[in-house]
Description:
Largest sheet: 4 strands, antiparallel
Number of helices: 18
Shape: elongated
Order of helices and strands: HEHHHHEEHEHEEEHHHEHHHHHHHH
Strand order of the largest sheet: 1-2-7-4
Amino acid sequence: MPGVVVSTERSSRARDKLKAFLLSEAADKGFDICRIARPDSIPDAPQRLKEFIDAGRQGTMDWMAETRDRRADPRVLWGDVRSVILFGMNYGPDEDPRVVLAMPDRAAISVYARNRDYHDVIKGRLKEIATRFAARAGEDVKVFVDTAPVMEKPLSMQAGLGWQGKHTNLVSREFGSWLFLGSMFTTAELAPDEPERDHCGSCRACLDACPTNAFPAPYKIDARRCISYLTIEHKGVIDRELRPLIGNRIYGCDDCLAACPWNKFAASASEMKFHAREDLKAPRIAELLELDDSAFRTLFSGSPVKRIGRDRFVRNLLIAAGNSGDAALIPTCESLTNDASPTVRGMAVWALARLMCKEDFHRLAARIADEADPEVRAEYEVAMEVV
């Protein structure tokens, strides 16, 4: 009927205008790419997530199992959602972040954490866009950045931002493996974009770059072996077999991202977005080991590093110290055997067992009778057998 055709055309034009408004707002707020996916566009996600969790590959991230249903389907998270808008922001570094790995006296901090917490930056900008969009569209909106149970990477692939590479992270032909992601759910019906196809081909550079062999197969990751998980999410003692493989990576790991050949097409992020603080590009391990809780909080104010707390941070530093071969770190490491945190004390013992000569370490280990924590005692006992 003619009236129906006219109404449909008007509705289509209205959706096109809303989409154009979104793209303009996204660019204005510093996003490099913005695309739209349908909320029902990831039907395989529930089964893939179930397999991941059933295999225990989430490690101690219990919240992944607790939020599984909401994470696997946007419509379970919010029943009224009709469109999912995905935003990407380039955070490409201006140099290969792996350079610092050849400097054993320096600490390697993941590129994304070398300045302000991107969660706060991106969420603030998304809220501005959402407010303006809701007012114009007369529709409800919700914004999410990583911390909510949203499978942003498969949704981003369906929206056309990129594809999930063999390292399970999003890869873009324009920005390589360096995209921060955020999403906006809305009750507005918007035309979805075309999904991106996989362009990895036979390449396995990211898989071969992993120091701990955290990929049991292409497109599958075992968090329990991933350095990013171990140094950030994992709260307890890190497995002894993995400690030497961590090297000087004290917060996260960029190896699989940096190895991606598609990065050659990615420009570095502009300074108005995410550029590294000079003091966090390659800080000295010796100086960071001296941080007490107050100094740690001051140095990492506004940084995602602050969220893991001083004790876990020093745990990571002590692993790096033990891998450094730098005997100059012995006095500082020895002082940390008296730290209030059992985790810190235990890692100090491990570091000293690798840095001290046999005689000196055995003299140190004589204090085991004064150690009440069983895990710290175990570190002494195991070290005594191998030193």
